[in-house]
Specification:
single chain; 342 residues; alpha/beta; Rossmann fold; eight-stranded mixed β-sheet; three-stranded antiparallel β-sheet; 11 strands; 28% helix; 18% strand
């Protein structure tokens, strides 16, 4: 973070390169809010590095005037992990997509999350491979017809929030590309988190998967299909804020708040520190376009946990190893134990 009083703006994080994304692509909104967040955080461009793999979203390092690395397919997490370990002073951001992170990069994604390096992952999810012209991705909906699934996708889609929590994620959030101000605030929360923050972004691809998230962004339907997570606030949704969610044991149930027998005091109160409830929230994954009376899709911060970071633990381990003075190669190779074989 910058220690100066100089006020920066998004322009200070804007590069000379014109974004080469299609008109109407949600990536434009994400880029703008990321620059806004960096300015709000008081960062200097030279204190930031953006790392990416392959995909439309992975062009992002060219469009910010920070340090950047455009790597190879699925390897953004590995490169960012090495950078953060070597330069813990830098603010490291990973720009990746549902294909880059969850398909070829899935193994790196899981282990980056569990190691918990202090860096920020913004995962653009448009449920399609856009850069390579419209193949289905790990998050594509069942039935989606693409160039690689002309008769419809038969794979069940990956649930990013559930995967991240199951991998030991310490900051798990989801936002919509059309909620600019909300996205900006979540980015800032993610940056302040000491550990690996993951922000999944439902992002529209107007060419190959247009309207994939319309059920969650359409003005007439959004209120009934999404629930915004606010710390210490009840889970309330609906156009008239007339619906709520309570827990019947571990089962979430929608209740009608216009019913005089129902009280807001009975509703589920959101707590970012409650991992059990975060996992239940991640299970709100029904498709409102194909199912009736399904649970709304959660938007916001699911879970936050304070846990040691990988780079700090590694530094402490090295310091401990060096505390006894210099060793020898023979001692290192021999290790702490020897065996005599008769």
């Amino acid at each position: 973070m910058s220690d100066t009083n100089t006020l920066l703006t998004a322009k200070d994080f804007t590069s000379s390169q014109e974004p080469k994304w299609c008109p109407g692509c949600g990536d434009h909104a994400v880029l703008q809010q990321l620059k806004n967040a960096m300015a709000d955080l008081g960062l200097k461009p030279e204190e930031v590095i953006v790392v990416s793999g392959i995909g439309c979203s992975s062009r992002l390092p060219y469009y910010v005037s920070t340090y950047g690395v455009h790597g190879i397919h699925g390897r953004a997490m590995a490169m960012a992990s090495g950078l953060k370990t070597a330069r813990p002073d830098l603010s490291v951001w990973v720009a990746t997509g549902d294909g880059d992170a969850l398909s070829i990069g899935g193994n790196h994604y899981i282990h980056t999350v569990r190691r918990n390096l202090d860096m920020n992952v913004i995962l653009f999810n448009n449920e399609i491979y856009g850069l390579t012209k419209g193949q289905y991705s790990p998050t594509s909906k069942v039935g989606l017809k693409t160039v690689t699934s002309p008769n419809g996708v038969v794979d069940y889609p990956m649930n990013t929030a559930a995967l991240t929590l199951g991998s030991g994620g310490t900051f798990v959030a989801r936002v919509l590309d059309r909620d600019g101000k909300f996205m900006r605030e979540v980015f800032k929360r993610a940056a302040h988190h000491k550990g690996t923050s993951v922000v999944e972004i439902y992002q529209n691809c107007p060419i190959y998967n247009d309207g994939a998230f319309a059920v969650f962004t359409d003005k007439e339907r959004k209120a009934d299909t999404t629930v915004y997570l606010e710390q210490d606030k009840p889970l309330v949704f609906g156009a008239q804020q007339d619906k709520g969610i309570k827990l019947d044991g571990f089962t979430p149930v929608i209740v009608d708040l216009t019913d005089s027998s129902v009280s807001k005091d009975d509703l589920w109160i959101h707590d970012e520190k409650d991992k059990l409830k975060a996992n239940i929230l991640a299970g709100f994954f029904d498709d409102p376009d194909t199912m009736e009376n399904c649970l709304p899709r959660p938007i916001g911060i699911f879970y936050v946990e304070d846990r040691f970071t990988y780079e700090n633990a590694l530094d402490e381990q090295i310091a401990q190893a060096q505390s006894g003075g210099e060793g020898t190669l023979e001692e290192l190779l021999a290790g702490p134990s020897t065996w005599t074989i008769k």
